[in-house]
Each structure stands twice: as C-alpha cells, then as structure tokens.
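Continuing from the previous page...

OK, I double-checked the sequence for Adenine phosphoribosyltransferase against my notes and this is the correct one:
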Amino acid sequence: MTETTAQLALARAEDLILEIPDYPSEGIIFRDITPLIADGDALRATVDAMIAPFAGQFDVVAGLEARGFLFASAAAYTSGAGLMPVRKAGKLPRPAVTVEYSLEYGSAVIEAHGDFPRGTRVLILDDVLATGGTLAAAHDLMEQLGYEVAGTAVLFEIEGLGGREALGDHELHTVFTS
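Thanks. Re-ran it with the corrected sequence; updated structure tokens here:
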C-alpha cells in the first residue's frame, strides 16, 4: 500500500467512527468503532498504523478488554507476534496479577497471566485513550509480570482528559485524536 493510499484509507477509517452521546453514562461520548472494524480496508489501515512505529520492537501484543482485543489480535497476526489478553477481573481461569484503577466513569480491575518469559517486549494496544487509567494500569501490570513495555498504541486519543500525562514518559502512539 502506498503512503497516499494508506492516508486515504486512514481518513476513511476515521470517518467510520461514530460518536454516541451519553453512553455508557451521561456526559460521556462513546466512540463506536463497529463500522470501522466491519470494513476490511479500514481495519487493515488502522492496525498497520497502530503498529508501524514499533516494527521489530515487540514480541507480544497485549490487548485490553474488550475492544483492544480486536486490534491486538489483528496486530499479533500481522506482525507474527504472540497475543496477550488483558482481562477484566474474574475472567481468567487461573491465578493472575491484578491491578485496580480509576476511569472516567468509575473504577475497575484488570488482570493478566504471566505466560511469557521475564523481559518479554510487549506492545500494549487499546481503542481509546481518555483519562489513561486503563493503560496506566496495564503498564503497571506488565511491570509486575516482569515484562518490558515496548510501546503503547491506541486508535483514538481524546485530548484534554489527561490520558497522555497519566502514562508518564512511556512511548505512546495514537492514530486519531480529537
């Protein structure tokens, strides 16, 4: 895919993201990526854009539940890397490391298994960066498991909510911003 073709595909992909007001609670604008992932060219363009800055720098792609799974699965397949699901609490069948965090409309807990050797280079993927609580918790989780965070990529960053600052100096790549 040429650079111009990729740019056009990304512009089209961004147009496919719908904004749903007051979901899941009043005052929140939910970014519905369903139309984007339903379009093969848009999905390919966004996954390629998410992982491009980190090519050759990661061994595993970690996807955050639930929509991060979609991008992480495609990214792992495309890059030949392993896949690591980062789940909501209580979803994994055996002991896991857990981290509690705050998000823009409440609090939550994520967990993951330590299935990879210490020092494994992990690229963390999610769909949206808002306040950064989920991604900061994922970074903490990787540290507790002894993994190296190779970078973080999100499809969409909502600027002005402090998410980038919550991640500190970790390398962050966003495909789209608002």
